[in-house]
Amino acid sequence: MKSAMILRIEGIMALVLSVYFYFIILQFSWIVFVIFLLAPDLSMIGYLKNNKVGSVWYNLFHTYSIPMLIIICSVLMDSHILLMISLIWVAHIGMDRMFGYGLKYPTKFQDTHLDRL
After folding, report:
1. What CA–CA distances, in Å, run from 74 to 26, 58, 87, 101, 113?
2. Are the C-beta atoms of residues 57 and 5 closer than 8 Å to each other?
3. Measured distance CA(1)–CA(68) in Å, rounded
4. What phi-psi label fits residue 28: left (phi over 0), alpha (psi between -120 and 50 degrees) or beta?
5. For the chain, which residues score pLDDT lower than 50?
6. Can you give the pLDDT at residue 73?
7. Residue 113 main-chain phi, psi, to 5 deg
């Protein structure tokens, strides 16, 4: 199995699990989810400067590291707001990976760690 396919499956699993916890287990708001689902894509504004800045900002907001750290903090602090934000963020990243949008190389927006778009 190609690594790109494995990463897409990983994205599907991240999306499904985050949606499951967000809606089924924690019963958070649908409206908040819909409003903020595409918020990480605001990081593409960096591409207005150049490809290098754009890829750094895009990758910063499209890696699982930060939202996973926020999930840990939200559990330790018992913060539902932080947990909502981080689960929506993980869902967004998973959705992107599922559709083949990976982390960006500084060459072009279409050059990703999954494949060329």
Report:
1. 13, 24, 11, 27, 30
2. no
3. 27
4. beta
5. none
6. 98
7. -75, -15
Show Cβ contacts of residue 51 under 8 Å, excluding neighbours closer than 6 positions.
Answer: 106, 107, 108, 109
At 2 the pLDDT is 80
Rounded to two decimals, the pTM is: 0.92
Residue type, 14: A
**Token output for 66:** 């930060």
Concatenated DSSP letters of the chain? --HHHHHHHHHHHHHHHHHIIIIIIS---HHHHHHHTTGGGGGGGGGGT-HHHHHHHHHHHTSSHHHHHHHHHHHHHT-HHHHHHHHHHHHHHHHHHHTT--PBPSS-TTBBSS-B-
Q: Is there a contact between 70 and 78 (Cβ–Cβ < 8 Å)?
A: no
Between CA 74 and CA 79, with CA 76 as vertex, the angle to 5 degrees is 35
